[in-house]
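Title: Comparing notes on inverse folding

I've been comparing how different people in this forum approach sequence design from structure. To keep things fair, I'm posting one structure and asking everyone to reply with a full sequence. Here's the target:
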């Protein structure tokens, strides 16, 4: 008898098959003496659409809401039906006795496999492979320690409850809003609070009134000293002008040695934030790159983790990991550590702060940097340097503070002297912002020494509004949305902290992308803004659906289901009651919706006027009739760079008239651009040929 292994994706399936010595390759599975390995293509099965329950649901109609199926049906995803049929046939083969779930080790990975097994009617015993990387060693160790699949039943119940709850609330809410106001309006328990946070930030910026504040600087022959006092009243400082030409003495000279440990290792959210700040990568882009580095290159551990710590057992693998990365720019950094013994009590080791997966770190897989794309190299570099940095000692510096006391008003001058670069050795000099105090020279003064004040300067500054959201700051707000709670409920704030905020590390990128694709968000540079459509939607959505408290309560209860502390049936009854209330509130509301972006362009399909909308990287015309769905791209941001200012060019027009344009005024027809690029490639080829 044989064991059937179900991986989440083909690349992981092929790796598992190779490790298990399966050599008979078929298009959709690989077979060996003891194992048959197949895979999903992500999800193969999902919750059925409303149309699958009743003909009444085929048309969007307010009277048919809320849709409350007694039992949720499963549906095979049409695009991957062929692969599902392969897996189903293998499941029912007479020589298959056991199933091993080898999908991603997490709540959603569990759901991928269990939906397939449920839909296919599996009755055979299940084992679970639970690993954080897909290296050969990890796979071998994982198969030596397979778990009983029943141990993960509660995790599956939590995943299924989340999926069904989102279906009930999201689909009923979206249909109710769309049919009530005759416009494509979507809502959800995570996307709507996220949208609301962005709108709240915009309101704060709009209502912000800048205030001028003042400070004092004393200029002496030796150096400039600053007062710690700042005030909004300039008159309070004018009295201090009498300090000029006075003689004062040095009150104190303090020298203090400080240390700063390295930042914690990356989880997915902190990595997405860093990549957005440094390279303007979107959250989705970073996740996709990480997935390739995990699955294809196998050089980084599981990406969808919410932990920034490692467990003690990982420490014994450090030497192998360091040997694997000790190449190229990391050779001199990693080399000294390859034979070192590491402390299991280090600040980044904490078993209690690791749930399903530890922080993202390099694997033991030998690295071939020349096989990576430029973007893959950037993400890999972030992770490797962060991993190396925690192995170094803390950054150590001496802070010197000289204080003057003149008429009982204190003025100070400070400098930092680096004693040990510590973990900063893992980074290049351009990595961090320059510290204004670091390396600044101070005069050689002594306590009690007399100093003459030569001049006094009143400094002026302005309070600044909060910055618009970027994807980095939005991810941070989704992870910790306590500021946006509508109440001061400490228990809810604690719940949000414990459950990871809005969404999960695995879903936040998709939520942001959905808000862009629904034309509820738009980008200007690296900043994110709500559209007119979004602002109207937030006026029409029931208030509690806009608040982080809802998802906090959900996630807390889903965690209890996963831990066996709450029955799935009790949670789902609560969700069904909430869905009925939510839908009835939308149906009885008296709000209105109007298109503020209507154009005079007529839809060629239905004859109605079209809407001008902005996507994440494009501008489009979209038919106002959601049933029509016709859309045309007006322009899109390309990866081509302007030869004058090097900004990304926009491509506008259709067919032969397509033209690249830049904000600096540069224009070039697509045909000419292609010819110029072709000539450039030929010149490079000639140059290479000449050099050889």
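Reply #1:
Here's my take.
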């Amino acid at each position: 008898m044989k064991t059937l292994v179900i991986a989440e994706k083909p690349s992981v399936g092929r790796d598992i098959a190779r490790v298990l010595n399966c050599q008979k390759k078929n298009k959709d599975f690989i077979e060996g003496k003891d194992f048959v390995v197949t895979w999903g293509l992500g999800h193969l099965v999902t919750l059925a659409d409303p149309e699958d329950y009743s003909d009444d649901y085929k048309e969007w109609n307010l009277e048919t809401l809320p849709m409350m199926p007694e039992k949720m049906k499963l549906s095979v995803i049409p695009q991957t039906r062929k692969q599902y049929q392969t897996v189903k046939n293998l499941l029912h083969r007479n020589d298959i006795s056991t199933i091993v779930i080898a999908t991603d080790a997490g709540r959603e990975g569990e759901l991928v496999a269990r939906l397939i097994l449920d839909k296919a009617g599996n009755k055979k015993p299940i084992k679970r492979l639970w690993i954080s990387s897909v290296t050969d060693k990890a796979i071998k160790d994982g198969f030596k320690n397979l778990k009983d699949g029943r141990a993960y039943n509660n995790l599956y119940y939590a995943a299924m409850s989340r999926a069904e709850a989102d279906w009930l609330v999201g689909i009923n809410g979206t249909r109710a809003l769309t049919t009530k106001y005759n416009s494509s309006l979507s809502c959800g328990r995570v996307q709507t609070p996220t949208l609301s946070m962005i709108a709240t930030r915009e309101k704060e910026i709009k209502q912000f009134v800048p205030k001028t504040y003042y400070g004092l600087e004393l200029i002496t022959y030796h150096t400039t000293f600053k007062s710690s006092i700042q005030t909004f009243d300039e008159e309070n400082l004018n009295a201090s002008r009498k300090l000029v030409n006075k003689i004062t003495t040095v009150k104190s000279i303090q020298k203090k040695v400080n240390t700063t440990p390295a930042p914690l290792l990356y989880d997915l959210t902190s990595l997405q934030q860093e990549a957005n700040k440094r390279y303007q990568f979107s959250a989705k882009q970073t996740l996709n790159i990480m997935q390739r580095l995990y699955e294809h290159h196998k050089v980084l551990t599981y990406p969808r983790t919410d932990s920034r710590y490692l467990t003690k057992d990982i420490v014994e693998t450090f030497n192998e990991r360091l040997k694997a990365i000790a190449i190229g720019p990391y050779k001199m950094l990693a080399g000294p550590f390859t034979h070192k013994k590491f402390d299991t009590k280090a600040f980044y080791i904490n078993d209690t702060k690791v749930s399903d997966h530890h922080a993202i770190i390099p694997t033991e897989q030998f690295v071939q940097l020349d096989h990576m794309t430029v973007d893959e190299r950037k993400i890999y570099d972030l992770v490797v340097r962060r991993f190396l940095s925690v192995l170094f000692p803390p950054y150590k510096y001496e802070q010197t503070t000289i204080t003057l006391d003149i008429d009982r008003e204190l003025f100070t001058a400070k400098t930092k002297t680096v004693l040990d670069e510590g973990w900063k050795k893992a980074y290049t000099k351009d990595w961090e912002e320059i510290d204004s105090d670091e390396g600044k020279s101070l005069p050689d003064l002594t306590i009690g020494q007399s100093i003459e004040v030569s001049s006094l300067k009143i400094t002026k500054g302005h309070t600044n509004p909060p910055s618009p959201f970027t994807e980095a700051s939005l991810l941070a707000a989704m992870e910790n949305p306590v500021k946006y709670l509508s109440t001061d409920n400490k228990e809810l704030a604690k719940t949000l902290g414990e459950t990871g905020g809005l969404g999960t590390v695995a879903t936040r990128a998709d939520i942001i992308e959905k808000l862009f694709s629904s034309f509820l968000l738009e980008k200007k540079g690296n900043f994110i803004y709500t559209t007119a459509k979004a602002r109207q939607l937030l006026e029409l959505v029931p208030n509690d659906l806009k608040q982080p408290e809802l998802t906090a309560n959900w996630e807390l209860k889903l965690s209890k289901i996963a831990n066996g502390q709450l029955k799935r049936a009790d949670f789902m009854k609560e969700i069904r009651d909430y869905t009925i209330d939510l839908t009835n509130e939308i149906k009885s509301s008296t709000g209105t919706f109007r298109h503020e972006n209507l154009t005079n362009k007529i839809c060629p399909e239905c004859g109605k006027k079209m809407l001008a909308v902005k996507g994440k990287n494009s501008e489009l015309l979209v038919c106002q009739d959601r049933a029509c769905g016709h859309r045309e791209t007006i322009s899109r941001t390309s990866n081509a760079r302007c030869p004058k200012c090097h900004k990304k060019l926009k491509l506008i027009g259709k067919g032969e008239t397509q033209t690249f344009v830049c904000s600096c005024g540069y224009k070039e027809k697509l045909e000419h651009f292609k010819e110029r690029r072709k000539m450039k490639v030929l010149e490079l080829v000639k140059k290479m040929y000449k050099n050889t």
